């Protein structure tokens, strides 16, 4: 038995991971989903913003982190549109614009909001922090057209948008570089602006330091936070029809973690038994 | 020409990026902004260089029937279809022939997502094999990882309602202490490298000659 | 109809990539190469529509509101492509220098005021507060950060007091890495959940 566990084929582990994720997706367990302070901080800040505030959502992610960040994107958009905000989006990752379009269609578009008066997608620009810094001095110079090639002078809600300080709040949905770190370094420090971050779970431990220092107002880290935010913003909803993608995955997430922890325990038991065996032999 | 001009360009761009913060005069702001506009365009061309390199290297492999040359043909076909469909037929689904959008949704999205999803299996396997409580350091790592893994998901809340709070405490204090130490150290390193690059002391990016 | 076709082609490529879990195989290799081609093609098109057209082409001197200055990044950008030709490849150092210089300058500013100053400032915390957990936490933050920094200080040999402090620094780092590992597991599992949701819900309608 010890030998079997010691040389356990990794594909057996793979099967367990697959089953522990797939089964809870098919059969709902209904584990509780509470909300943590960094998530509530984001929610509360948006709640406090007066309707009509100009909010920049920088969607810096791609399909590689979609299961974590797309539900977050949807929930944030829904919250902002529910509160009657003007939403502007930019993307620093090339694969993000179509995802943002989908998020807009599912939320604002379905809620009867109008492109150009309630929402505008300024599109993608290459250059990471260079783009971020340039937004600090001139948005019309950097974004002469929106994602669809329309001159921004012809878009009603772009009137009065000069630079980053024209916005009341920035929400960054970040999958890594360029993302929250660059927004904090180049915008929050220079212009003392309000920024919140929605990021992948991989980046979250690093950004906790920004939350503690007050450089970001709130933090949504990974799918669990997305699920918390979905719950806070009334997702799933029927009007507009929005699925609770992150909340649905929480049972599977719990079970997969449990299986990984069990494997770690088994690995350690094997290690200690092996060590004992070697000691006995000596 | 080969070294002096690039070093001068680096210094000029670097100095203006720094000066923009300290000198609010409109001339400095205007020049810095313009230089940033140029940098945005040049970064885009760097991407085009990447595409050109892909074509050059892989067509070379195909011509000399190198390893996996059949797959390289597939790669180049996919690349050309994507580029031509996007530029000639338009990138938006509302256009008459949404091939670009079709390929993005049916190929790019699922494959990129799945590539990263594979890591779930490998991280589990690696945890089973490598996570051993051999030393004090390893025990600390192991215990923290386990608490966070369980405490940060719904299961933790189900087991004990205080567990999410404990996890948050770990993230806010001990985790932050380590991350802050790394951040402070890394920022000092980045500042010194930045200065060395602008002053022309660090010039390995120029390559040989 | 198009939606169904997209879903099934996406499912096919998802399974192609998952087949790597068994072992490296021709189906995986095929999908992998399609992916590289599609992603580079996609990036090229995005750069064309989002950067080249609005920021270069539509700002040429002959366009309304255009400027002669736009020719400079265009020329520098084209010079970048000289890297493909070994004889004149050195010219590409000029546009490369633009990128290196810009990022070096921005890194200095960003790291100094965004990370260094703010993170040091945030570590000045009261060591006695109303709540026990916060008091302990603040001790952890203040002294944990210092010990971590001592560990990274290699100009002095890690012996005696410095050695002991550095050892505590390693412990703090290990806790921090443990937290990062826990979160990384969470991230990877989330991505798997996303793909399984796609296969079970969008393809097979089992959810």
Give me a quick take on this structure.
The complex is a heterotrimer of chains A (282), B (209) and C (207). Chain A is of the alpha/beta class and 282 residues long.
Radius of gyration of chain B: 26 Å
Span of the ends, CA to CA of chain B:
11 Å
Instruction: Categorize the overall geometry of chain B.
Output: extended
Instruction: Report the average pLDDT across residues of chain C.
Output: 95
Assembly level: heterotrimer
Radius of gyration of chain C, in angstroms, nearest whole number: 27 Å
Class inferred from helices and paired strands of chain B? mainly alpha
Strand content of chain C: under 5%
Biggest pleated sheet of chain B: none
Task: Compute the average pLDDT of chain B.
Answer: 93
Number of beta-strand segments of chain B:
0
Tally of individual helices of chain C = 6
Biggest interface and its residues per chain?
B-C, 125 and 118 residues
Main sheet summary of chain C: none
Question: What order do the helices and strands of chain B follow?
Answer: HHHHHHHH
Q: Count of helices of chain B?
A: 8
Give the strand content of chain B: under 5%
What coarse outline of chain C follows from CA principal-axis ratios? Answer: extended
What does this structure look like?
The complex is a heterotrimer of chains A (282), B (209) and C (207). Chain A is α/β, with parallel strands linked by helices and 282 residues long. Chain A folds into two domains: 57 residues; 206 residues, Rossmann fold, CATH 3.40.50. In chain A, strand 2, helix 5 and strand 3 form a beta-alpha-beta unit. The longest helix of chain A is centred in the C-terminal third of the chain and has 37 residues. Chain A is elongated, with a radius of gyration of 22 Å. With 209 residues, chain B is mostly helical. Chain B has two domains: 91 residues, no CATH class; 72 residues, no CATH class. Chain B is 80% helix and 0% strand. Chain B is extended. By secondary structure, chain C is an all-alpha fold. Chain C has a domain of 80 residues. Chain C is 73% helix and 0% strand. Chain C is extended, with a radius of gyration of 27 Å. The mean pLDDT of chain C is 95. Chains in contact: A-B, A-C, B-C. The interface between B and C is large, with 125 and 118 residues.
